[in-house]
Amino acid sequence: MIRLKHIYKSYNNTTVLNDINLCLPSKGLISIVGTSGSGKSTLLNLLGGIDKPSKGKIFINNNELTAFNNKDLEWYYDKFIAFIFQSYNLIDYLTVEDNLKLVSNKYNHVLKKLNIYHLKDKKVSLLSGGEKQRVAIARGLIKNSKMLLCDEPTGALDNNTSIVIMNILKEVSKERLVIMVTHNMELANKYSDYILHIKDGHIESVPKINDDTFNMKITRNKFRNVYKIILNHLLNKKKRNILISLSFAIGLIALSFVLSISNGFKKSIDIEEKNRLSLYPIVISKNSYNIEDELTKEDKNNLDKIYIKDINHVNNITKEYVDNLNVINNNFKYKIYKYNINDYIITTISLINIESFYNELDLLYGSRIISNNEVILILDNNNQLNKYDMSMIGINNPEYKYESLINYSYVINDITYTIKGIYRVKDDSILSDITGVIYNSEVYKDSIPDTIYLYPSSYDNKQVVINKLNEYQDIKYQDISTSIKSISNSLIDGISVVLLVFSIITLIVSSILISILTYINIMEYKHEIGIYKSIGLSNFNIQVIFYLENIIITCVSILISTITVLIISIPLNNYIYNLTGLINVISLNFGNFLLISFLSITLSVLSSSIPIHNISKLAIVEILRNE
Ligand code: ADP
């Protein structure tokens, strides 16, 4: 049974209900009648739990409805009551069937009874007032609630249909409590078990009602399938949603680029190192710089002394050392030795693979070295030779024709050498600093060189060589490629940080945008949210609708940005390749994609969570009245 105890309700100091005390049974048909504005709907709303009295308590059995929390109310709307609103409150863009499905799947028999089965697949917006009213009644009836609250249920219906409806309500009232607000006294008199007359905020002649109880089993709300609503919201505001997707995508494109550049650049530098940088020579010189720090940790912490450091390190290259290098012969494409003999700088090549050496050069004139007494001239990119080196062998003019130097002979240490070929270093060759007169290595086979250039044949071989060189702690070597690599890596890191900051700013702006638009969205769908609540969708269920909409929009953004980056990276990578020779500098990998997806979905959920959270605060009665 329902008990109303000292119920007052006033709006802006006008008292509408004034000390109502009343008991209602758990079954039967009760009509509320009275003049317009007398407070009939107000009373109905209080019973429906969508409005609260200014003072007083309402009990359902022994539970105080007026003290229900949000979760209790969700249960109450879902399981206990069903509304049939005067203004129908149907979702216009859904079909009759989809409107009913939000409440229950068992609607066919009711539709047939109400003679609207043929309208099942029609959109509600296309129905007449009378048809809408019957759909609203159907929605109220299919919900197996304990109490049916009807506000002028026959207001828009003709006489015959009204009688059909009243018969149905009378039938239903054998099992549940039906409370009906009406103006139609004739129907009220004919069908009601009790009639409540409201006048001046009071109920005239309160009926005496026997004590009985509702069967109240608390069960959880069912999660409703809302994909049609989401789909419709997305399509309904197509242009706006596309714009949001695009603007969010811009932030994501920036982020994708940053990640794919730092990923691809490091990878391509790595490949570059393996393919090319590793082929740059390791140089072992008699006189080298001592780049290592010789101070101990203690010294470093003790900066009150002056330390004298010998930066000129003298490498003691021994016969044994050179022999040892020859043991790992196969790991070099070629070795180049420089000797300093009686002021002559003699550059010889030890050809492990003679073809690869000549591949670095363009033949200008003559031929290769064949015997020990033959040498070749290697010119730099501008066809120049060092004046000092040349004057040592008697070549003193400022310029020569190729043919005039071929077969030119000179004597060193009683041995006569003849120039056999003239070569130029290829543009992109790693041999660029090897120019001048080049001898066959056999010539100085047993002497100890001043400088050794080791050209490893591959990245892996280079590691073997370096391991070998590391065995000689006193002999320092210089690895050019390592220093190039560390410069380029720090360059990438620097650029990445700058780009990252930019993309984070764009993402923040996009998130704020999403937050604002979600807020606007919710305000626009306020009335609809009221309907969902009144038919028993939980707040969580409604929030899921809006979260999913945002997540779908975000997924579209992710898709747009990923496709854009993948497409743009093709010509851009080509351009960069032509410019620098680096392959796939922009390369978006799956890990980046997952990171971006995770980040953007999290951002969108977070930024929309505040406006979406407000859904639970929206009061049904306010929302539905503001129609
Ligand atoms: P009825 O259903 O009997 O026609 P209502 O219950 O709708 O009457 O309204 C009773 C009185 O309360 C009316 O004067 C109406 O204007 C007023 N009223 C109802 N709701 C509000 C509200 N939210 N704010 C101010 N006045 C209200």
How would you describe this protein?
The protein has 627 residues and is α/β, with parallel strands linked by helices. It folds into 3 domains: 2-221, 3-Layer(aba) Sandwich (Rossmann fold); 232-273 and 486-626, no CATH class; 316-475, no CATH class. Strand 9 (194-199) and strand 10 (202-204) form a beta hairpin. Bound molecules: adenosine-5'-diphosphate (ADP).
Summarize the SSE layout with pairings.
Layout: E1 2-11, E2 14-24, E3 28-34, H1 40-47, E4 55-60, E5 63-64, H2 70-80, E6 81-84, H3 96-101, H4 108-113, H5 129-142, E7 147-151, H6 159-172, E8 177-181, H7 185-191, E9 194-199, E10 202-204, H8 227-236, H9 238-275, E11 282-285, E12 287-289, H10 297-301, E13 312-314, H11 319-327, E14 332-341, E15 344-351, H12 354-359, E16 361-366, E17 374-379, H13 387-392, H14 402-405, E18 409-412, E19 415-425, E20 436-440, E21 451-456, H15 459-470, E22 478-479, H16 480-524, H17 526-534, H18 539-580, H19 590-613, H20 620-625
Parallel strand pairs: 3-8, 3-9, 6-7, 7-8, 15-20, 17-19
Antiparallel strand pairs: 1-2, 1-4, 4-5, 9-10, 11-21, 11-22, 12-13, 14-15, 14-21, 16-19, 17-20, 18-19
Helix pairs in contact: 8-18, 9-16, 9-18, 9-19, 16-19, 18-19
Bound molecules: adenosine-5'-diphosphate.
Adenosine-5'-diphosphate is lined by residues 11-12, 16, 34, 36-42, 625.
